[in-house]
Amino acid sequence: MRYLSTTYSIDCQSEDLLQTCRELLADSLGEVGYESFMDTDDGITGYIQQEHYSEPHVREVIESFPIDGVKIDYHTEEIPDQDWNEVWESEGFDPIVVDGKVTIYDAHHVEDAEQFSTPIQIGIQARNAFGTGNHETTRMVVSALLSLPLIGRRVLDCGCGTGILGITALKCGAEEVVAYDIDEFSSENAKHNAVLNGVGDSMEVLLGNAGVLTHVEGLFDVVLANINRNILLEDMASFRDVMAQGATLVLSGFYEEDTPMLLQKAEALGLHEVSRMTDNNWCCLLLT
Fold first, then answer.
1. What is the pTM of this model?
2. Quick check: helix, strand or coil at residue 113?
């Protein structure tokens, strides 16, 4: 599956206004198919599947931008598969510690995980997939997992990326994880990382979108979905259908201002907020 990256340069009056513009622009771009974003010095870079990219939609987002006097330029290019591999394998990422309990490290560059003092160490070899712990949403979901009773539980990881969340759940005592991702590179990477961390026998990884759940038997005690807002809204009913009584749904991948619409959808499905976390305007909801 091919991805495009679009770099958006925002010309505005101040740094404070720039951050507001970043958030508004990302919110609008999420509605036209962009899946994830990274801040740049003067704007954001957005990532979208090639088949979902529409130049007219992008122009419409920019032309209808709600703040007067702001100029937005953009440049879109294809991301070669090899480029992702080369960046991750050559540059890697620094170890990340979550709540003093989990260390997520780059298994490309670290051979001895015992050097880390946390009770749980997770090695990730990211290959064309999202999920290393660098992003606020990943860290919040990992933190949420640390707070949940997982021993002997069955967990579903929706849009699994590198598999980091499912692997964390198994390391925290979950009995079984079923994971899926629409991207073939991600599903294969998740399988690889599960084996790398010694939990490959307990983690089943499927290729596809939420439609794969119609072929999965049984219910889940915990459902994890760190995906963009639009997909969460579209697939939440499918998540609800496979939740056992009293199960927990952990949602992230969206901004704080998107919370009301997600909670409205959740309430309509009989799901209720238990708690939430926020980090740099990103949000994580725990529902039951």
1. 0.77
2. helix
